[in-house]
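User: what does the whole thing look like in 3D?
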Amino acid sequence: MTKTITVKELRENFPLVRKQIKQGVNFIIIYRSRPIGELSPIKEIKTGLKKKSLDVFLNPPKNILFKSKNSAIKLVRNERA
Amino acid sequence: MASYTIDSSVFISAFNQQDVFHKQTKEFFDCLGKMDFEIILPISVIAEVGNILIKNRKIKDTLIFLDYFYEFTVIEFNYEFLLSAFPVFRKFKLKTGDILAASTAYLYKAVLISWDKQLLKQSKKLVASFTPDEFCRQSFS
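Assistant: Here's the predicted 3D structure for the full assembly of 222 residues, as structure tokens:
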């Protein structure tokens, strides 16, 4: 996910920005209404996050699982009908 | 590093315990986890999966799933995307939900993964497209 942030916002909210970078968020830095650079997590962290997020689909938490006699294909087709 | 666009049918299959492909979908995510990959998702996939989950689960439970998806690269449909996508739309003969998934894969040079053979039949003309089990067989054969 990529967000934009002004230099002023970055200065005033750095702890929050640092936390989000750690979670895999990329930032485009805006200075005087123009993008001047990017802040992004180091690759190892990003890859680790992606692998971790796949585990959720491998073993989804019980509160997100459901039972439907309709197949996934049919459920999606109904949304696209 | 290879990029993959995963269609809604794969995610829904992972969440629907009675889905005929539920076990194979788990195997697919297991296969994918062994590789170096990037997942590129059109925001329409997240909206579709969310809408289906909301019909089957409580809203507060459904909100949790959003965080999982935003760890991937999410493609939003802004002016720039549509400018590139409209010429691609002409190349596929698909409904809007299908075409957004296929166009995202095409524009971001990603492999499209779906359980929906109707979608794959059309998308294969322009994008590498596989069902999850085909993908696993091909990757580890």
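In plain terms: The interface with chain B takes residues 1, 23-24, 47, 49-61, 63-69, 71-73, 75-77, 79-80 of chain A (CB under 8 Å). Residues 43-58 of chain A form the longest helix (16 residues).
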